[in-house]
Amino acid sequence: MVRKIFSGARIFDGQRFHDDKALIVSDGRVEAIATASELPDGEHTRFEGGILSAGFIDAQVNGGGGRMLNDEPSAASMYMIADGHRPYGTTALLPTLITDTADATAAAIEAAKEAVKTNRGVSGLHLEGPHLAPARKGAHLAELMRPVEDKDVTAFIAAKEAIGTLLVTMAAEQVTSQQVRELSEAGVTVSIGHSDCSSEAAEARFDAGARGVTHLFNAMSQLGHRAPGLVGAAIDHPSVWCGIIADGHHVDPKALRTALRAKRGEGRLFFVTDAMSLVGSEQDSFTLNGRTVRRERGGFCSKLVLSDGTLAGSDVDMASTIRYGVTYLELPLAEALRMATLYPARFLRLEDHGHLSPGARADLVHLTDALEVTRTFISGEAA
């Protein structure tokens, strides 16, 4: 057995930092964090300072590297998307299919079944639609949205069994509490999003097993003092996890800071990119369901908009969200790292991801002190 030794950087294990220590990896998994006097023989990688952390996990990635999953829902597209995000520290992601036809959804499911069998950074599938509310459609096509039917429940459960990790975003208006319960009990991760529901309707789905909300604040009923909406229900419900897009465009930092302070319970806020194909690409526009999305430069990062100004996903990468969190959300570095590693892993129930405890996958990212990515590793191998 050949061990790999990583030293020279501060090690963040998912909970705390270790200084003057080394990470020992064997057979692609973490063996231990040890002092120099305890190191076995092995292949040594030495860093000149910086931070070594578990690789980032992104639960919502529509595209990257010049490819949208909707354009070609295939395993090859999923690999291309994962490759496009890896230079920014993401070692595990869920390719995300936004609202599309039944054929496209079926193709994405088949592609994910193949992609998760490899070790190329694809950890499951996220279906964001078609069971969304036209009243909160965002950049999705309202004409393709529809309620969940019994056959959909059956198909999602079968897909989860074959893929392993399946996340589905649904509007409370389009799915019953009983359907949520059936899906959740079968291991499908249900997230409420693109919904104009009342807080009471949201709470009913949460109590039935819905585990999260998709891009908190965006495309959902807002927090009012007499009508708390989906935002209020998500922040108040203790078991609910909330993905957030921290790019300076989707949500004002004051709202995110307020939500971070207010969120109660085991459920936490965690980073997602909601990235489109332009991340990892030099292109400045792409086509989404026949509509042109263009990149507008400026601000913390570029933003992506339709011709009418509607935001259409993001142009942010996961490393940038961590920098945004530290700079604009006033997060301690450890918490910002957890929001890109440990918390999304817990939300998705990827038990061996997102931390560097013994037995965990050795998916790693090395960052400079300025939080720029220098190298990534999957199962201890340079990626």
Q: Give the count of helical stretches.
A: 10
CATH class of the largest domain: Alpha Beta
Number of domains: 2
Strand order, main sheet: write it out.
8-11-12-13-14-15-16-17
Query: What is the count of β-strands?
Result: 24
Structural class: alpha/beta
GO biological process, one term: N-acetylglucosamine catabolic process
Domain Amidohydrolase-related: 51-381
Binding site for substrate: 139, 218-219, 226, 250, 311-313
GO molecular function, one term: N-acetylglucosamine-6-phosphate deacetylase activity
What does this protein structure show overall?
- The structure is a single chain.
- With 383 residues, the protein is of the alpha/beta class.
- The protein folds into two domains: 4-53 and 358-382, Urease, subunit C, domain 1 (Roll); 56-348, Alpha-Beta Barrel (TIM Barrel).
- It has helices at residues 75-85, 102-115, 150-163, 177-185, 199-208, 229-236, 253-262, 318-328, 333-338, 342-348, and strands at residues 3-7, 10-12, 17-18, 22-26, 29-34, 43-46, 51-54, 56-61, 63-64, 67-68, 90-98, 125-128, 166-170, 189-192, 212-213, 241-245, 269-272, 285-288, 291-296, 303-305, 311-314, 364-367, 373-378, 381-382.
- The strands form five sheets. The protein has an eight-stranded parallel β-sheet, with helices on both faces. Strands 3-2-7-22-23-24 form a six-stranded mixed β-sheet, with no helix packed on it.
- Helix 4 (177-185) packs parallel to helix 5 (199-208) and helix 5 (199-208) packs across helix 6.
- The two termini are 21 Å apart.
